[in-house]
Amino acid sequence: MVKVNSCVFISGAGTNLSALIKNSRNYNFPINIRLVVSNKKNAAGLKIAKKFSIPLKIIDTNSSLFEVNILNEIRKRKINLICLAGYMRILSKNFIKNFKGKILNIHPSLLPKYKGLNTHERVIKNNEKYSGCTVHYVNYKLDSGKIILQKKIIIKKNDTPKTLARRVLIEEHKLYPKAISKIFNL
Fold it and tell me: What is the DSSP letter of 85?
């Protein structure tokens, strides 16, 4: 199987990165992770990339050239798919235009509800019965791209934002690889 060269953008713990790496080691999984990009030099997920000997790039998002630099790096490595996995920066329209239809994101809510940050707090505050996670294509509007897959879970009476976040994250680790397989018709 010819795998698609991919890049994962992270900002934090890298648990979704870890799930994607483990799946990418499977012969039948359609992507090969060739680069990990982080906007945080202390992101715990960078240790995961090092453990699996995946090249990494830490970008200074304060620089006006950071997107140009990262696009050059991506082109140099012949990357054809970008997976945002807990990447806490909004990409510019120009960056998205360069990879239109080739950027995925995982979001911890049942989109289109609860776009943006603090989703678990808002879900609980609004007494929702369900929450979950969504894998979607990235477009110019925050968390508004075409939905690929979603996973719904029941919110328990004793859930807090922290317990709900943990339960949703477990589902994210399963849903992201499943969505990637789906877009490649596997």
Answer: S
Residue 142 φ then ψ, to 5° = -55, 125
* 136 is a catalytic site residue: no
Q: In this predicted model, what pLDDT tens digit does every residue of 25-36 receive, in sequence order?
A: 999 999 999 999
Q: Which domain CATH number covers 152?
A: 3.40.50.170
The token duo for 69 is 């630099």
Structural domain total, the chain: 1
Q: What is the pLDDT of residue 186?
A: 65
Q: Pick the catalytic residue: 107, 120, 136, 173?
A: 107
Strand order in 56-58's β-sheet?
A: 56-58, 31-38, 4-10, 81-84, 103-107, 130-137, 147-154
* Residues spanned by the domain of 137: 4-183
Kindly give the parts of the chain with pLDDT less than 70: 186
What the block records as the tokens of 112 is: 């289109």
SS3 10: strand
Q: Which two tokens stand for residue 29?
A: 């999984």
Residue-wise pLDDT tens digits, 79-107: 999 999 999 989 999 899 988 779 999 99
Quick one: which of 68, 95, 65 has its CA closest to 82?
A: 95
Contact yes or no for 153/127 (Cβ under 8 A): no
